[in-house]
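To illustrate the input format used throughout this study, we show a single complete record. The first block contains the structure-token representation of the backbone; no residue identities are included at this stage. The design step must infer an amino acid for every position from geometry alone.
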């Protein structure tokens, strides 16, 4: 009825312990309620118990559909500033056409860069799948959930590239770096991971333990333990600082970053600008793909190397040879080989056209 509140889906969760102590997690499809993994099938309205955790799942039918006739009626009553009929854009059709057009440009102008980007996304998907095939619990949850966030960020950056959204892609890349540093920190320091999970004031925790470079000593220790090189770890941290500084203008909006949203240097036409286009293949996208691919490889290679050393951190305690871990190792190897074979040449190509975040830090 008009005026009533409509809820597409409602998921009610009742727990008698902290959710972070959940030993095993299933995935619920709220539209067709069923447990996809690690749980039994549910009815439309049901309660199930897993260990000491009781979850109640309730779904509500969709109460409202907005029809074209309603929009047309509203549009007809809109104020008129001109005699012509108001324009309407079908967003779904627009994005579909943009993807198709830019896909051809990507294949022509940055195919190897997009292959590296896809390999990075695939790697985070495999890392997440492997981690969630293991038991969750204190000391592991924070790392597992960071892997989900990294997978989400990497996949979203890829999608923004395919839609030609430069500023949004680079803004999310800044978040990606924060997340990968946090994943390294919670893996390296169990006490930090526990404090992070238990923090009630996220802003206060961020300010005291993460912001203003406070997280870098943990990141440096994680990389040093994996690589066996303190110099390599220091270089990587200095690189992180420089990259995040370069990306910050997309988050804390700067005039140059907003300018690059509306006036985009075209990859396929060096020296030409796209002005006011809904989406365009930016000359900065290849460098961004290299950046994400290199960071994905660093993170996964560090995780794998740490497994070979005595007393691995708590987050890796359950890691055993398995199909899912094999997927992670194989994907890391593929990404590493591609970067070794083609990374320098792609970097040199990128530098001829545009600023590169992935170069040596002076």
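Output of the design step:
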């Amino acid at each position: 009825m008009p005026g009533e509140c409509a809820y597409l889906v409602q998921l009610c969760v009742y727990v008698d312990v902290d959710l972070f102590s959940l030993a095993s997690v299933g995935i619920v499809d709220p539209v067709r309620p069923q447990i996809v993994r690690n749980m039994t099938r549910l009815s439309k309205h049901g309660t199930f118990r897993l260990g000491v955790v009781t979850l109640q799942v309730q779904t509500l039918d969709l109460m409202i559909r907005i029809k074209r006739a309603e929009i047309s009626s509203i549009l007809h009553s809109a104020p008129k500033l001109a005699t012509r009929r108001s324009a309407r854009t079908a967003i779904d059709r627009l994005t579909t056409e943009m993807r198709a057009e830019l896909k051809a440009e990507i294949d022509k102008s940055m195919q190897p860069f997009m292959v590296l980007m896809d390999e990075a996304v695939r790697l985070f998907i495999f890392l997440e799948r492997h981690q969630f095939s293991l038991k969750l619990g204190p000391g592991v949850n924070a790392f597992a959930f960071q892997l989900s966030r990294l997978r989400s960020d990497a996949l979203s950056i890829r999608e923004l590239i395919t839609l030609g959204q430069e500023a949004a892609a680079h803004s999310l890349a800044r978040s990606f770096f924060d997340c990968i540093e946090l994943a390294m920190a919670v893996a390296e320091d169990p006490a930090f991971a526990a404090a992070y999970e238990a923090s009630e004031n996220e802003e206060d925790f961020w300010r005291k333990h993460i912001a203003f470079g406070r997280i870098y000593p943990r990141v440096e220790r994680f990389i040093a333990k994996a690589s066996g090189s303190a110099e390599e770890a220091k270089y990587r941290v200095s690189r992180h600082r420089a990259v995040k500084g370069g990306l910050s203008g997309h988050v804390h909006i700067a005039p140059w970053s907003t300018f690059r949203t509306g006036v985009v240097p075209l990859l396929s036409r060096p020296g030409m600008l796209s002005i006011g286009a809904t989406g365009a293949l930016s000359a900065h996208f290849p460098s961004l793909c290299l950046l994400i691919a290199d960071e994905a490889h660093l993170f996964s290679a560090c995780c794998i190397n740490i497994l070979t050393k005595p007393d691995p951190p708590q987050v890796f305690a359950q890691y055993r040879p398995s199909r899912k871990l094999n997927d992670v190792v194989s994907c890391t190897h593929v990404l590493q080989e591609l970067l070794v074979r083609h990374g320098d040449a792609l970097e040199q190509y990128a530098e001829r056209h545009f600023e590169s975040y992935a170069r040596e830090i002076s």
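Structural context for interpreting the output: The radius of gyration is 24 Å. DSSP finds twelve helices and four strands in the chain.
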